[in-house]
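Lecture 7 notes: from sequence to structure.
We start with the chain below.
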Amino acid sequence: MKILTRIKVGAVALLLSAAGSMPAQADVFNVPDADWTGGLVTCRILGNIIENEMGHKMRYITMPSGAGVYEGMRSGDIDFACEGWPSYSSSKDAYMTQWGGDGSVAKLGDAGIVGVSSYYVPRYLVEGDGAPAPDLKTLQDLNKYVDLFKALETGDQGRILACPIAAWECDDTKRMELLGVNFMAVELGSETAHWAEIQASYARKEPFVAYAWEPHWIHAELDLVALELPEYSDAWPATGWPQDITFNYGRPGMLTEYPEVTQLIINSNLTNAEQAGMIHAIDVEGRDVDEVVEEWIENNEDVWRAWLPN
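Predicted structure tokens for the same chain:
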């Protein structure tokens, strides 16, 4: 475990160096770009306000979400991050007091986004005349339809499109094993590949079962039905996900060194509906992230000005 910790800290330092960064300093904030569009948008909105209204600078870092972000905060190399999903991060248990941790990472308020996660199938698969899987209601029901979901890569197992990124800690493979679901969890490695395959399969009216979450534009584009999972409990990951009240977080020194910036982060509150529109503009319409954020800033001044400290 100690060796792993050193590796993670070293990886953060290397990423900062590669980005031309320096350790956290006055007026410059080192912030990781989230590896999903919603989290990216949340932090870019705050960054825009911090730069243009508070006179500071942002230095965005490309790195995986997960344990490395927490290690970077603990070591002082990362200042803050946005929209942590509690059920996707076991690191919070070690570092954040709200979950029994040592306090080396501070919670900086709720982000406003309320997340729901599950596995989804297209409605044409389970409803309507000639639907090939009319009794598919729960995750365990997949065992009735293994042949329908088989693929060359999965052999005698069905194929389930899992969380696209390992650092999200979805534990899809373990969940299938614990619940006795004869499916292989296939991870594609990026959000882009994940949604592209779902859209392509849907367009061809093929059977598929895939991980997804809300809020997300995919539910506006495709008619999907969530499978029922066991209610969340200590038996995780032999359960579904809990509802995620997302949070912003950072190194504890932010509270005393930059109280006004920290208060802005704590006060910020982005709704599911507000974020979903921006995600659609970026992921579906292909617009630039910063352009979409600027547009939201211009059109919602009454919203974000209420976040500014008095």
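Points to note: The beta strands are 28-33, 57-62, 80-84, 106-122, 158-161, 183-186, 210-214, 224-226, 244-250. The longest helix spans residues 37-54.
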